[in-house]
């Protein structure tokens, strides 16, 4: 399952990434393997989504969220 498939309030743990270039960017923002991610909000049209990770809130596009594989 990837992050873009979760609904508001659901959580998961980062397992791996599908895009190497995007993974570097996401890891710099705190989305490290083993970190818990919770979906906080979804925009009315579904893009972007707001997540809680590493103690702060982060907004991601659906494409970026789809590169994060969860356990």
UniProtKB/TrEMBL annotation:
GO molecular function (one): transition metal ion binding
Top-level taxon of the source organism: Bacteria
InterPro entries cross-referenced by the UniProt entry: Fe-transptr_FeoA-like (IPR007167), FeoA (IPR052713), FeoA_core_dom (IPR038157), Transcriptional_repressor_C (IPR008988)
One Pfam family named in its UniProt record: FeoA
UniProt KW keywords: Iron
Domain Ferrous iron transporter FeoA-like as annotated: residue spans: 1-71
Family annotation (PANTHER family): FE(2+) TRANSPORT PROTEIN A
Full protein name: Ferrous iron transport protein A
